[in-house]
Design brief:
- The strands form three sheets. A six-stranded mixed sheet has the order 1-2-4-3-5-6, sandwiched between helices. A four-stranded antiparallel sheet has the order 10-11-12-13, with no helix packed on it. It has a three-stranded antiparallel sheet with strand order 7-8-9, with no helix packed on it.
- The protein is 30% helix and 28% strand.
- It has two domains: 8-160, Glutaredoxin (3-Layer(aba) Sandwich); 188-248, no CATH class.
- The longest helix is centred in the middle third of the chain and has 22 residues, at 139-160.
- The protein has helices spanning 8-14, 36-46, 61-71, 74-83, 99-112, 139-160; strands at residues 19-21, 26-29, 49-55, 84-90, 119-123, 129-133, 188-193, 198-202, 205-207, 212-217, 220-229, 233-238, 245-248.
- Helix 1 (8-14) packs antiparallel against helix 2 and helix 3 (61-71) packs across helix 6.
- It has six helices and 13 strands.
Length: 251
């Protein structure tokens, strides 16, 4: 995967709204053009990493689990205060956003190659991408361990190459770090939730029983209605098809 360079200038291109202090860790919200340079300056000045969190805060079940199990925990908040500059880029369905904010958030997702939620993109204090992930089990302790490993590995690599002539890296606003996923078929990735309320991740979209949403397929999107979520499969009605069909869980 080709890494990207995160620069102060590139931060200005993306933009951010004013930082909002949470009870433990401070988050910057959105990708509007305003004070993004401050995030880059803070990371450089304090020797911290920058973590972009792309989320669907009011509908994405995995995003909610990540917030509950990791971001709201004291262990994460303590770690973040000392090591991270936090940026949340949100794509809600029920929470109102200005058109300018929606457009800037979409632009940020496109530039970073984000195709699903939650996606976490981590940059070191010099603006180089050092890792990305999504929801993983293990809670705050596992998250802190993995993030610490990425930060330390990047620092060790930078130190090992400090005597070599610097090489030009692609700017942050250039090519995507990885090409967007192109789905040729409908694929059931995961089933989550409880027996009374289940969630099915179909390609790039999370659905519940009875819900109809656009799902990425080929070079566009197709409307899919979730008829039933079973233990190992889902029954869906796909736009353009005569009747419902079963899609089994990918192994």
């Amino acid at each position: 995967m080709q890494h990207m360079q995160l620069s102060k200038h590139s931060f200005r291109i993306l933009g951010l709204v004013t930082a909002v202090a949470a009870s433990g860790a401070e988050w910057r919200h959105g990708a509007e053009q305003s004070t993004v340079a401050a995030a880059a300056d803070q990371a450089k000045r304090e020797g911290k990493a920058v973590m972009f969190t792309f989320t669907g805060s009011d509908w994405c079940s995995w995003c909610m689990k990540l917030k509950q199990e990791v971001f709201s925990q004291p262990e994460f908040e303590s770690f973040a205060r000392d090591h991270l500059v936090l940026v949340e880029v949100d794509f809600p369905r029920r929470t109102a956003q200005s058109e300018a904010l929606k457009m800037s958030n979409q632009e940020a997702a496109k530039k970073m190659g984000v195709t699903g939620y939650p996606t976490l993109v981590l940059f070191n204090s010099d603006g180089k991408e050092i890792g990305r992930s999504g929801y993983k089990q293990g809670g705050a302790a596992a998250f802190v361990r993995e993030t610490t490993r990425l930060i330390n590995a990047a620092a060790a690599q930078a130190h090992a190459h400090s005597v070599a002539p610097p090489r030009e890296l692609p700017p942050f606003g250039g090519a995507l770090t990885q090409p967007p996923i192109r789905y040729t078929n409908l694929t059931l990735k995961t089933i989550s939730g409880t027996a009374n309320r289940r969630f099915a991740l179909l390609n790039d979209q999370t659905l519940t029983a009875g819900e109809t949403l656009p799902v990425k397929l080929q070079d566009g999107k197709v409307n899919v209605r979730c008829v039933e979520i079973r233990d190992e499969s889902v029954i869906v009605a796909v736009q353009g098809e005569k009747g419902p069909r079963e899609i089994k869980l990918r192994r």
